[in-house]
Design goal:
The protein is built from four helices and eight strands. The chain has about 160 residues and is an alpha+beta fold. It has two domains: about 35 residues; about 110 residues.
């Protein structure tokens, strides 16, 4: 058998094959990380921003309501700090623009607009019950409704 710098020729081929398999496994894991959740991974998310206000438009539902809620960043409500933290978090900033994958009827449609310092806005549209709706988006919607209702919603 032919000798190489690694010894026998078969040994160097096994090392090459093992290395190649390892490389493909790492590449597969990286691809799954970036395509699996619909949002950027937390490590690639932008840094948190200071929230000036959160607005929510809710429409639809069984009776076809239309509500508009506004929560200022300095709201005295006990849950306001939690809302501002969620809306300014890297996970919220990394959300897609829309989560509308639910064709069923009688669902609420939401448009969340967060205003940040420096005149930066982020708008996310969602429909109730959409598969894969991120928890941070559900939290922002629920908290905005809770705080907004406590302050009496402005009906359109």
């Amino acid at each position: 058998m032919k000798q190489t710098i690694f010894g026998k020729a078969g040994f160097s081929v096994r090392i090459f094959r093992t290395s190649l398999v390892g490389l493909f496994l790492v590449l597969g894991l990286l691809c799954a990380e970036f395509t699996g959740s619909g949002a950027m991974p937390a490590s690639a998310a932008p840094p948190a921003l200071r929230v000036v206000s959160v607005e929510l438009d809710r429409s639809g539902g069984f009776v076809g309501t239309s509500d508009h809620f506004v929560v200022p960043g300095d709201s005295p409500h006990v849950e306001a700090a939690r809302l501002m933290q969620a809306a300014g978090s890297p996970r919220f900033l990394a959300l897609r623009d829309a989560y509308l994958d639910n064709p069923c009827c009688d669902r609420f449609r939401y448009v969340v607009t967060v205003h940040y310092e420096g005149h930066v806005d982020k708008r996310v549209r969602a429909i109730e019950g959409a598969p894969g709706l991120p928890a941070v988006l559900s939290d922002v919607i629920d908290l905005t409704i809770e705080i907004g209702q406590a302050a009496a919603p402005n009906r359109r």
